[in-house]
Amino acid sequence: MSHAILAERHGGPEVLTWRERPLPVPGAEQVRVRVRATGVNYADIQARRGGQGAGGKLPFIPGLDACGTVDALGAGATGLRVGERVACFPVGGSYATHVLAPAHLTFPLGEGVPNAAAASLTALVTAYNVVTHAGRLEPGETVLIHAAAGGVGHLAVQMARARGAGQIIGVVGSDARADFLCGLGVDEVVNRHREDFTQRVNVLTQGRGADLILDSIGGTTTERGLTCLAPFGRLVIYGHAGGQPAHLPTPPLHRQSRAVIGYSSGHHRQARPQVIRDAAAAAFALAASGGVRVHAAAELPLPEAARAQALVEGGEISGRVLLTR
After folding, report:
1. What's the DSSP call for residue 22?
2. Residues 252-291: tens digit of each pLDDT
3. Number of domains making up the chain
């Protein structure tokens, strides 16, 4: 037998329950992974809440990624071996003691990859791709990162630094998070509750604006971002944590060759998995070398998923929250 966290209805963290279930059996080209840790992503919270296209058919197991050891191989699953330490994108959720994952989305881990990084596959891949694949950040450019102390944001800060960004501006919601970002080497921090980020960016860039804006908020934050986006700049939208869509005028885009780009790691997994594989390899190499460090703000036992999600939902955590066994 195995165990998993189930969301049996939509709602607050209290809807998450710890349940026993049969041990899953890997199908063709699948592996079974005995989970060591899984990360809490904001998408997990949106799925639990339901609405706006989030959440699977009830009941469902939350979670996007996990790390652990290969426990069994399905027919045709090649390139992996039982007992191997891996990170994976499971089929049907990751908040479980055992998960099934496609072999082509299961990644062997070198000894140098820390456990916090191994359990942060989605965050690492997303941060790498919004900076490089979607954002096309060039050395010397200015990058503005919303939710910069969050699970993806603090990694995007480090990815941008590794990529040679000239100036990194991070937007946060508290002074404690500002202190955390300064420790990561952010050049300027904007507290969104005290300052208008658009005005601050335009002052810091002498009116030119940011070359790259990484936006996981949506709504008016995205709309206002156009007012501080440089000519030839890219605004990458990879989430809607604010819960509202944005309505963007087109003249500011074509008149100065600006671009608004959408990015989803989940969509790439389905449509262009090689992009995900390339990003995972690059991101884990950075983690192994120390070029990027995943900050685990809290580690809780897997049965305490409700408490873990409440911590992330509260918005005061800097870095990642992990569920471990």
Report:
1. P
2. 999 999 999 999 999 999 999 999 999 999 999 999 999 9
3. 2
